[in-house]
Structures are given as C-alpha cells and as structure tokens.
Design goal:
The complex is a heterodimer of chains A (115) and B (114). Chain A has 115 residues and is mainly β. Chain A contains no helices and 11 strands. In chain A, strand 5 and strand 6 form a beta hairpin. Chain A is globular and about 40 Å long. With 114 residues, chain B is mainly β. Chain B contains no helices and 11 strands. In chain B, the strands form 2 sheets. In chain B, strands 2, 4, 5, 9, 10 and 11 form a 6-stranded mixed β-sheet that branches. A 5-stranded antiparallel β-sheet of chain B has the order 1-3-8-7-6, with no helix packed on it. In chain B, strand 7 and strand 8 form a beta hairpin. The chains are: A mainly beta (115), B mainly beta (114). The A-B interface holds A 31, 33, 35, 40-45, 48-50, 54, 56, 58-59, 90, 97-99, 102-104, 106-109 and B 1, 6, 9, 32, 34, 43-46, 49, 89, 91, 93, 95-96, 98-107.
Chain lengths: 115, 114
C-alpha cells in the first residue's frame, strides 16, 4: 500500500531532550516536506527536500534540522526542544514539485508535547 | 516571501446550500494553488487544485476559481452535505528553479447543518 508513515504518532518529552521524528514513504517520491499545524495558524512549512541530499528551509525552520540521505526517509530532528515546539507535525511527499505530479500526500501526523 | 490569507475562519451553512471560501496571495509569481480538506483527527487530503494558466476548474460539486490580476482564488462547494464538514486549507506555491515552498492559509472550519 502506497503511504507516508511517521513515528512516533504521539510523544511527550521535556525541554532540551533531543528527539527525532521519522518520516518514510514507499512511493519513490522525490519531494518531501515537514509542516507543523497550530490552531489558527494553519500549516506552516518547516523544511523541505527536493531530492536526496537537497534540503531547504521553509517558513519556520528555527529549532529544527532535517536530513535526506536516502529517497524514502526524511527525519525531523529537534536538537533541544522547547515548549513552543509543542504542535502537531505532518510529513508529506510528492512525486515531484513544480510539475503536474506535485500532489502532496500527508502522513498521519505526530502530536508532540514539550514540557 | 509569499503570504496567503484565508477567509472566513469559520463558516456554517445548511445542508444543500453553497459554501465559498476565499484566499488571497501576495506573490504574483505563485502559479499553483491546491485546496486541502482535513477531517477531524485526520491528515489533510488534496481535494482540488488549479494552476495559473487556468481560470476555473470543476470536479463534481467542487470548483475553484483563480483571478491572477487580483491575486485571489476561491473554493466553491455546491449542494453541501454533512460529510463536507471539515477544515479546508488553501495554499500557494511558486514553482521555479529549486524552490519548493508551499504556503498555506490559516484554514476555514466548515460546518454543514443537516
């Protein structure tokens, strides 16, 4: 089944404790992206990757890191999480970006709470 | 950079009525405008999109219109049904070079009353 998966789905952690949220897709998609969703703010793009080893900042990259060492995986790293990073996080992927095949498919979401 | 404003933030209609959600964007170079529907507790899913070389696109009860001069685009849902109740997001992107940004509006919560 074609899908985007995220792990963990729920996470409660404490300030300063490094964490990684994994994202994986099995559709051979080139483009992958991370968003955070907060009430009243919609979805805001954190980082995106146009292809392997190509990543770039979205609108709210502060406090986050990403890597794209292989096509299927795009982990989101919070080196020193803070309470303002408490949010619902979505990973998404698409076959490409900027062509007729750029429909983004979202993962199930990861609800992160930083105490 | 691009900024997308979406209105209204909440919309309540009677079943069978039409619903219209409007978005404005700031970057005249934006050329791709998708709409996503997010049901409660679920992930966003694409329902329709439009590209800048087209003024209108329709898919059954859903249509999207684009006015490039005014830099706004709208989602139209006709004959609304209770299962249309959800949060709807518009988005805009500029597809050029290696830019891969997709900017979303703040969302509209649509409630369809039976």
């Amino acid at each position: 089944e074609a899908q985007v998966t995220q792990n963990p789905r729920y996470l409660i952690t404490v300030t300063g404790k490094k964490l990684t949220v994994t994202c994986s897709q099995n559709m051979n998609h080139e483009y992958m992206s991370w968003y955070r969703q907060d009430p009243g703010l919609g979805l805001r793009q954190i980082y995106y990757s146009m292809n392997v080893e190509v990543t770039d900042k979205g609108d709210v990259p502060e406090g986050y890191k990403v890597s794209r060492k292989e096509k299927r995986n795009f982990p989101l790293i919070l080196e020193s999480p803070s309470p303002n990073q408490t949010s619902l996080y979505f990973c998404a992927s698409s076959l490409s970006f900027g062509t007729s095949t750029d429909t983004q498919y979202f993962g199930p979401g990861t609800r992160l709470t930083v105490l | 950079g691009e900024n997308v404003e979406q209105h209204p933030s909440t919309l309540s209609v009677q079943e069978g009525d039409s619903a219209v959600i409007k978005c404005t964007y700031s970057d005249s170079a934006s050329n791709y405008f998708p709409w996503y529907k997010q049901e409660l507790g679920k992930r966003p899913q694409l329902i329709i999109d439009i590209r800048s070389n087209v003024g209108e696109k329709k898919d059954q009860r859903i249509a999207v219109t684009l006015n490039k001069t005014a830099k706004h685009f709208s989602l139209h849902i006709t004959e609304t049904q209770p299962e249309d109740s959800a949060v709807y997001f518009c988005a805009a992107s500029t597809r050029s070079g290696n830019t891969g940004k997709l900017i979303f509006g703040q969302g509209t919560t649509l409630q369809v009353k039976p």
